[in-house]
Amino acid sequence: MTDERTAHGERIHRTVHETEVAAPAGVVYGLIADATQWPLYFPPNVHVDRLEFDGTHERLRMWATANGRVKTWTSHRVLDAVARRIEFHQEIPAAPLSTMTGTWIVEPLGTGTSRLTLLHDFSVTDDRADHVAWVERATDTNSRAELAGIAALARQWARLDSLVLSFEDSVTVDAPPEPVYAFLEQAGRWPDRLPHVSRLDLTEEPAGVQIMSMETLTADGSSHTTESVRVCFPCAGRIVYKQTLTPALMSAHTGVWTVEPGPAGTTVATSRHSVVLREEAVERVLGAGADLARARRYVREALGRNSTATLTHAKRYAESPVVL
């Protein structure tokens, strides 16, 4: 690597990660270009908000795990669909970074095969060796996870519509939005408020970012342990989450709770889920002969039942004459 430096004299470090993908280059590029779906497709990504997009230039607010911690930053991307190349830079990098730029490159290798390369160029304040090592470790871990996720999804691109499931449930609450949102945000109190939650451990750092480990009961009496990262937006009445430990039938699960004013002083509370099914686990979980159609129904019913129960209890809480 050449000894390039930033305007502040900090040394620029480069990492290179690449993989071969058993899918056409256009498919691979499409997965990278749709960053709003990254939390569903790639393990490190928790949530992505698209702030601006004109078809070529894009600004994104992103949340992702890095070495076990949740980091957030705003990225600017330039998309070139013809060259299948996406350049990005972080506008306000998360500490200890002082700069972070990079490039996604997709190259066709032959019929149905592509090479995907991910470049990162970064600098850290004062070029501290321990900070450089931390960023290199986080970049290596996340890049490997992202490339592996892309490769796994792209291999199944022809069946992706069967594996991905999205749905929502809503309730109308005869109360203002604030107590409904408070019930959903105060997840640490759910074991006392929700019969299907038997245990929940929660930490919050920084404010608004919640790390949860939860044990839930299903209709057949079995229990599932999940771990999640939640990002809370009180002013918007929205809580987004990504399960970092999922039940066996799902390879990914993301969701969002929204609380919005409804007609005549009511509130509409909604739970939205998006799931990627783990096809190889279908018969192991649901029994011999079970197929994806049955798995989709099972997941829809199980997740919908629990989230609707949560919304119903939020409704009772908000409509109670004494809100605790």
Structure explained in plain terms:
This protein is of the alpha+beta class and 324 residues long. It folds into 2 domains: 13-155, 2-Layer Sandwich (Alpha-D-Glucose-1,6-Bisphosphate, Chain A, domain 4), CATH 3.30.530; 161-319, 2-Layer Sandwich (Alpha-D-Glucose-1,6-Bisphosphate, Chain A, domain 4). The protein has 8 helices and 14 strands. Helix 5 (177-185) packs across helix 8. It is globular.
Largest sheet: 7 strands, antiparallel
- CATH superfamily of the largest domain, please? START domain
Number of domains: 2
Share of residues in strands:
35-45%
CATH class of the largest domain: Alpha Beta
End-to-end Cα distance, whole Å, is: 60 Å
Q: Kindly state the percentage of residues in helix.
A: 25-40%
| Helical segment count | 8
CATH architecture of the largest domain: 2-Layer Sandwich
Enter the CATH topology name of the largest domain. Answer: Alpha-D-Glucose-1,6-Bisphosphate, Chain A, domain 4
Uncertain parts: none
Spatial order of the strands forming the largest sheet:
1-7-6-5-4-3-2
Q: What is the strand tally?
A: 14
Shape: globular
Structural class: alpha+beta
Mean pLDDT, to the nearest integer, reads: 92
The Cα radius of gyration reads: 21 Å
Compressed to H and E, one letter per element, the order equals EHHEEEEEEHHEHHEEEEEEHH
Concise synopsis of the structure shown:
With 324 residues, this protein is an alpha+beta fold. The chain is 28% helix and 44% strand. The chain folds into two domains: 13-155, Alpha-D-Glucose-1,6-Bisphosphate, Chain A, domain 4, CATH 3.30.530; 161-319, 2-Layer Sandwich (Alpha-D-Glucose-1,6-Bisphosphate, Chain A, domain 4), CATH 3.30.530.
